[in-house]
């Protein structure tokens, strides 16, 4: 059954869509929805064979005579969209030594040319159909699978038929010529180069240690330069013919369409497909095996020390068992839940020790079935210092305690309450589960060889298992998790000589004393016992804002709220609190505390409650507490549910009224910042992460990434001195969007945010503090210490900011999309110089400066001048002549579909209206939103390009390897890598 032990994976929020206009590309008349091979109600569908997991009746399953299997279902989220996944049961583990990288190369080649798509036509064709490349149209290759993904907006029967035809042509009949292989290999090598560097080397070295003797040890999907460089049409075709055959394919489709129509199109376009040659079974992936002479009670095997000077310390060891297919039964899933419970108990104890100032920054245990190669229990942690042995001993002592003594009933009940809220929320939100996630669920289930279950089934199995859980049973599962055939370990460190293989082996073989001090004692904490925020406030003004049924409520203390109560997304409530002036209120010498605030402010607690006690309060509830410092405001954000909304609002208000100042989160955030800092120099993307915002804001010290010296000098006392007055700033705006009782929530707001002491708005000098843009001129150069073939380049122009010209900002996004398409074509398709160049328009709407349009790419050092030349050429062309109709439509149609589907979700409206109580002009501007994105004529876009590109020289940044210059000629002197 899918997603039991994986229940706590975070899924990205996918906004629903209502798409507007039919597309010009139509297929031949579609067949009537009359599939021939649908599993009947009295038949066991293929995914449930050998399983007693109750069937999810919303899915319809079929299996064709050629062996291809499919699953389809009706789903209206987003409206008028269908999500299709085509999964090939072949990844990098299916490659021979000479074929490394071929599975991923094929993923690329299928998009290059196929039966119904000429060379280079795949991306433009999907764009004309309204699909955005990279999000709506994509693919991925893993060690065990290759999956092609398509999310089709504004669907109808003709578009479905056309899209299924195109997909079938890609999968069944790609053109694998020498010419196409030769054209695509440089793009794959560009992708490999961008991924390369210290992190990739460390990951590959660790994988070789942990999977020694198995195919997974040296088969990463990206492949090798040698095997990719030797690829030919014939050699890639041989791999394709071996694995791309209907017996190895599963198609899943979920969307706003008759599922029988979905099934009929799959059968029509894939039903007559036959594989070439005899069927080839998958190779043996191998088993983890202990070395001869290992102690069966503690079978420590391969150990490795990986030295990478620019990476922070990280330690992984794993208890490994052979992976075997299982019968996905209810009993099996009950066991997975008990395993998950055992892990959660240990992880809470490990986190408690880290919060209290332990010897490690973080530590976690996790069981995973890795690429059908091993059943593993991982222990991952980051030592705070070079004393890795102390951290290892601390963590092993916590695990030893879990292996020696059963947990308390109170600990078990707490974790079960956390599980329950997750499973209940999934049931509550079943109606709004997005189609892309549902289609992915089938693919994931097939990959791990498990069935698929409805949320109600998951909750039912949990409830039946819950009554059987005893401390002794949890102990039994804990011991099973830490028993295996071999134990392997890999330690990544920046320091040569800090550890040896023998020292780590000795540490793992040495008996460890159990330490129960990390167990969290039961403590009764209730919201009923917490102090009120203050005297409930009075409502001064309440009424509609004129958009949908959204209301505004103003309280007498100056707090203003925007509320939209609706049932579009059952079980979900989004809450956002905006307060103060954001970065405008940060002084030049406070950048280190601005940075630490992101990591430590929430953990510092509320009143007398520290983070542990706040966690206790959240048991069995769905809370969130994200914090950001924005350009014009500080924000709290949470996704919660109606049952927990009152308490969520109390927590946010209490953080402003009575913040806590526990010093431990500050110390931990300082340690994390110091550990991360040196790794920024490991590659160009790290330098960009460290320096780009600072440079693009004219070296404004508020946006500087703190150095280790700055972090060392920071103190908890000064942290409080900076943040305490910031938390008292106004104005305060609260947005609540989702399924909730409006009147009850207004009353809660009156008792929480309405009860705050009146806040003072910062003076005009602070509110109007400008954000500078760097002067153009000589190219700014930064240096990294990574691979000599890696570089990055940025070209940027200043744009606008504020609400007054918000409509222009939307049109600039259209222009940026046009720029992005052309730059992609120039740098990736033609030059093979960059895998994923990107152009972005950033227009901060709650401040009056700081906007920019930036083009960015990672590439080879010798291609930096090429990037600058191509980007400037494109900018000039956009300013000199309007774009053609087809190019315009290929940008506007995906934007139209994105806005249309996003606008059916609560978050879309929340993001559009945040700040409206400060500047009410946001509200009337909403009426132009779709038109600004989709009806701005090419001549107007040309005028924008003239205004922003032709009127000023671009600012340039190059990030190149230490010891090189921009021309990559003679080495320079001191490269200043620490700049």
What is the fold-level CATH name, i.e. the topology of the largest domain? Cytochrome Bc1 Complex, Chain A, domain 1
**Spatial order of the strands forming the largest sheet:** 12-13-14-18-15-17-16
User: Can you tell me the residue ranges where pLDDT is under 50 for at least 5 consecutive residues?
Assistant: 1-31, 969-979
Strand tally, please?
23
Keywords: Hydrolase, Metalloprotease, Protease, Signal, Zinc
GO molecular function, one term: metallopeptidase activity
InterPro entries: Metalloenz_LuxS/M16 (IPR011249), Pept_M16_N (IPR011765), Peptidase_M16 (IPR050626), Peptidase_M16_C (IPR007863)
Domain Peptidase M16 N-terminal: 78-191
Tell me what you see in this structure:
With 979 residues, this protein is an alpha+beta fold. The protein folds into four domains: 61-270, Metalloenzyme, LuxS/M16 peptidase-like (Cytochrome Bc1 Complex, Chain A, domain 1, 2-Layer Sandwich); 300-433 and 445-514, Cytochrome Bc1 Complex, Chain A, domain 1; 534-767, 2-Layer Sandwich (Cytochrome Bc1 Complex, Chain A, domain 1); 780-961, 2-Layer Sandwich (Cytochrome Bc1 Complex, Chain A, domain 1). Helix 2 packs across helix 27, helix 3 runs parallel beside helix 8 and helix 25 (806-830) packs across helix 31. The longest helix is centred in the middle third of the chain and has 26 residues, at 330-355. The radius of gyration is 29 Å and the shape is globular. It starts with 59 loop residues before the first strand and ends in an 18-residue tail after the last strand. The model is unreliable at 1-31 and 969-979 (pLDDT under 50).
């Amino acid at each position: 059954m899918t997603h039991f032990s994986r229940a706590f994976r975070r899924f990205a929020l996918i906004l629903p869509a209502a798409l507007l206009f039919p597309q010009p590309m139509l297929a031949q008349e579609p067949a009537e929805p009359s599939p021939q091979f649908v599993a009947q109600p009295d038949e066991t569908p293929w995914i449930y064979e050998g399983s007693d997991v109750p069937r999810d009746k919303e899915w319809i399953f079929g299996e064709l005579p050629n062996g291809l299997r499919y699953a389809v279902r009706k789903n209206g989220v987003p409206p008028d969209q269908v999500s299709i996944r085509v999964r090939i049961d072949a990844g990098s583990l299916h490659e021979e030594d000479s074929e490394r990288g071929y599975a991923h190369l094929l993923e690329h080649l299928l998009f290059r040319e196929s039966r119904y798509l000429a060379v280079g036509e795949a991306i433009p064709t999907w764009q004309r159909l309204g699909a955005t490349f990279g999000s709506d149209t994509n693919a991925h290759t893993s060690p065990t699978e290759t999956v092609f993904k398509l999310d089709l907006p504004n669907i109808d029967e003709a578009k479905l038929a056309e899209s299924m035809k195109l997909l079938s042509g890609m999968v069944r009949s790609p053109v694998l010529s020498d010419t196409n292989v030769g054209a695509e290999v440089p793009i794959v090598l560009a992708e490999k180069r961008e991924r390369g560097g210290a992190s990739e080397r460390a990951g590959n070295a660790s994988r070789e240690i942990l999977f020694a003797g198995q195919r997974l040890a040296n088969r990463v999907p990206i492949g090798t330069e040698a095997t990719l460089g030797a690829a030919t049409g014939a050699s890639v075709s041989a791999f394709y013919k071996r694995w791309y055959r209907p017996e190895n394919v599963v198609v899943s489709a979920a969307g706003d369409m008759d599922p029988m129509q979905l099934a009929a199109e799959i059968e029509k376009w894939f039903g007559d497909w036959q594989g070439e040659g005899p069927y080839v079974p998958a190779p043996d992936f191998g088993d983890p095996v202990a070395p001869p002479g290992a102690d069966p009670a503690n079978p420590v095997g391969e150990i490795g020390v990986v030295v990478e000077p620019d990476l922070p310390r990280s330690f992984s060891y794993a208890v490994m068992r052979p992976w075997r297919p299982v019968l996905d039964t209810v009993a099996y899933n009950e066991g997975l839940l008990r395993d998950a419970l055992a892990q959660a108990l240990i992880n809470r104890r490990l986190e408690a020790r880290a919060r209290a100032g332990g010897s490690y920054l973080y530590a976690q245990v996790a069981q995973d079935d890795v690429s059908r190669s091993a059943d593993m229990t991982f222990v991952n942690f980051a030592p705070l210092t070079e004393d890795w042995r102390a951290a290892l001993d601390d963590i092993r002592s916590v695990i030893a305690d879990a292996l020696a003594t059963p947990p308390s009933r109170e600990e078990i009940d707490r974790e079960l309450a956390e599980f329950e809220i997750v499973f209940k929320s999934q049931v509550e939100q079943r109606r709004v589960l997005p189609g892309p996630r549902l289609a992915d669920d089938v693919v994931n289930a097939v990959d791990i060889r498990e069935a698929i279950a409805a949320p109600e089934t998951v909750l039912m199995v949990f409830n039946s298992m819950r009554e059987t859980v005893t401390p002794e049973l949890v102990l039994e599962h804990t011991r099973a998790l830490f028993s295996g055939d071999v134990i392997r370990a890999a330690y990544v460190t920046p320091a040569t000589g800090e550890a040896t293989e023998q020292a780590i082996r000795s540490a793992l073989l040495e008996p460890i004393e159990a330490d129960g001090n990390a167990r969290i004692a039961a403590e009764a904490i209730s919201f009923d016992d917490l102090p009120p925020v203050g005297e409930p406030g009075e409502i001064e003004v309440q009424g509609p804002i004129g958009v949908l049924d959204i209301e505004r409520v103003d309280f007498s203390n100056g707090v203003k709220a925007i509320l939209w109560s609706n049932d579009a997304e059952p079980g979900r409530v989004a809450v956002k609190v905006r307060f103060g002036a954001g970065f405008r209120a940060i002084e030049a010498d406070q950048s280190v505390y601005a940075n630490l605030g992101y990591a430590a402010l929430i953990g510092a607690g509320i009143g007398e409650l520290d983070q542990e006690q706040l966690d206790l309060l959240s048991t069995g509830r769905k809370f969130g507490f994200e914090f950001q410092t924005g350009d014009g405001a500080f924000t709290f954000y949470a996704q919660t549910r109606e049952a927990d909304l009152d308490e969520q609002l109390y927590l946010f208000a209490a953080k402003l009224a009575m913040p806590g100042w526990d010093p431990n989160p500050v110390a931990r955030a300082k340690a994390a910042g110091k550990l991360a800092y040196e790794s920024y120099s490991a590659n160009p993307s790290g330098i960009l992460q460290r320096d780009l915002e600072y440079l693009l804001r004219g070296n404004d010290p508020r946006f500087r990434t703190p150095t280790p010296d700055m972090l060392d000098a920071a103190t908890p006392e000064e942290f409080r001195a900076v943040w305490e007055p910031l938390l008292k700033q106004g104005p305060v705006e609260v947005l609540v969007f989702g399924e909730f009782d409006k009147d009850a929530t207004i009353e809660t707001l009156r008792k929480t945010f309405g009860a705050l002491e009146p806040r003072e708005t910062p003076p005009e000098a602070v509110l109007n503090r400008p954000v500078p843009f760097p002067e153009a001129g000589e190219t700014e150069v930064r240096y990294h210490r990574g691979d000599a073939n890696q570089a990055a380049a940025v070209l940027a122009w200043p744009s606008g900011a504020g609400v007054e010209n918000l409509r222009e900002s939307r049109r600039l996004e259209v222009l940026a999309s046009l720029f992005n398409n052309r730059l992609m074509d120039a740098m990736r398709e033609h030059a093979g110089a960059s895998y994923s160049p990107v152009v972005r328009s950033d227009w901060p709407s709650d401040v009056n400066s700081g906007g920019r349009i930036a083009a960015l790419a990672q590439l080879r050092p010798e291609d930096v001048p090429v990037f600058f030349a191509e980007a400037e050429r494109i900018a000039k062309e956009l300013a000199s002549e309007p774009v053609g109709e087809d190019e315009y439509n290929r940008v506007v149609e995906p934007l139209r579909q994105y806005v249309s589907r996003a606008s059916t979700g609560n978050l879309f409206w929340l993001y559009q209206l945040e700040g409206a109580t400060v500047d009410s002009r946001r509200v009337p501007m909403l009426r132009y939103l779709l038109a600004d994105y989709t009806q701005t004529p090419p001549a107007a876009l040309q005028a924008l390009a003239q205004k922003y590109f032709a009127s000023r020289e671009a600012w340039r940044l190059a990030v190149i390897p230490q010891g090189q210059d921009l021309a990559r000629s003679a080495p320079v002197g001191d490269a200043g890598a620490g700049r």
